[in-house]
């Protein structure tokens, strides 16, 4: 049980990454503070499985763009579960917006949701971890911290901001035994619809741009989060780990590994 006795705060339990992460970490003994916009309704089945695993889970619904809200739920966790040992920030809002015609309100919304919440949570949790001289913060980011989407510059900007926040926090909080790392997560099933673009071909035949032709899953992401949350990663701090199966290497324009008819040429 690699997280036995540890309390993990997942900032968005309702999304696919949150559901996979909560189940994997609960299986390793973690107690969970789960922020759920639905108040737990959208993850009722997963919560049942968490409890079957014998893990404790506190479900809250907080606007993590506000420091007062972050402090409120951390106080609740202190009373019910104990101090948070691991923060997993996985807010991930994608809204189409172009540089030429985009509304300022849309840009602000995406930046607030993806980047401001990362800052607010890191500040609130980091201060408490600093007092205990230990802890782990994991930012679930995106390959679009590096590569434009072609359909939402605000999303790319927000993930780029999180990447630099993680690096800055790793230097400052690292002085107090707190590790801070980020995961640049790549394509999973359905992202071609999420990132549909009129100007970019990045997600055309996207599954075959992964060299092995096999897409990753949110369960793969959860495995990496588990490692970064555990004491096994004690010497990993300030890292940006790209988890995309080699997707971004396709710029070399290798031939895609596509299925072919029996007896035919690959």
UniProtKB/TrEMBL annotation:
Sorted alphabetically, the keyword list is:
Oxidoreductase
Highest taxon of source: Bacteria
Q: Does the record's keyword annotation contain Oxidoreductase?
A: yes
Matching entries from Gene3D superfamilies are given as: NAD(P)-binding Rossmann-like Domain
Q: Does the keyword Phosphoprotein apply?
A: no
Q: Which GO terms describe its molecular function?
A: oxidoreductase activity
The protein's matches in SUPFAM superfamilies, at most eight in alphabetical order, are given as: NAD(P)-binding Rossmann-fold domains
Pfam families reported for this sequence: adh_short_C2
- InterPro entries given in the database record: NAD(P)-bd_dom_sf, Sc_DH/Rdtase_CS, SDR_fam
| Family that this chain belongs to | Belongs to the short-chain dehydrogenases/reductases (SDR) family.
Q: Output this protein's name.
A: SDR family oxidoreductase
């Amino acid at each position: 049980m690699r997280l036995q006795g540890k309390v993990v705060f997942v900032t968005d339990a309702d999304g696919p990454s949150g559901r996979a992460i909560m189940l994997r970490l609960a299986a390793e003994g973690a107690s969970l503070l789960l922020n759920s916009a639905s108040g737990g309704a959208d993850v009722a089945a997963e919560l049942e499985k968490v409890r079957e695993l014998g893990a404790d889970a506190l479900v809250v619904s907080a606007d993590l763009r506000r420091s007062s809200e972050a402090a409120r739920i951390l106080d609740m966790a202190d009373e019910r579960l104990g101090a948070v040992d691991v923060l997993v920030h996985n807010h991930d809002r994608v809204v189409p917006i172009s540089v030429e015609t985009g509304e300022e309100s849309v840009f602000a919304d995406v930046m607030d949701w993806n980047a401001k919440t990362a800052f607010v949570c890191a500040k609130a949790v980091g201060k408490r971890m600093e007092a205990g001289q230990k802890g782990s913060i994991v930012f679930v980011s995106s390959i679009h911290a590096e590569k434009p989407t072609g359909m939402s510059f605000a999303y790319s900007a927000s993930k780029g901001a999180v990447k630099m926040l993680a690096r800055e926090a790793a230097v400052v909080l690292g002085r107090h035994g707190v590790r801070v790392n980020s995961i640049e997560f790549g394509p999973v099933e359905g992202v071609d619809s999420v990132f549909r673009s009129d100007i970019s071909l990045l997600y055309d035949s996207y599954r075959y741009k992964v060299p092995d032709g096999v897409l990753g899953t949110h369960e793969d992401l959860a495995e990496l989060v588990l490692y970064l949350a555990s004491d096994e990663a004690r010497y990993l701090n300030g890292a940006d780990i790209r988890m995309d199966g080699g997707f971004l290497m396709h710029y070399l324009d290798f031939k895609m590994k596509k299925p072919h008819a029996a007896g035919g040429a690959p």
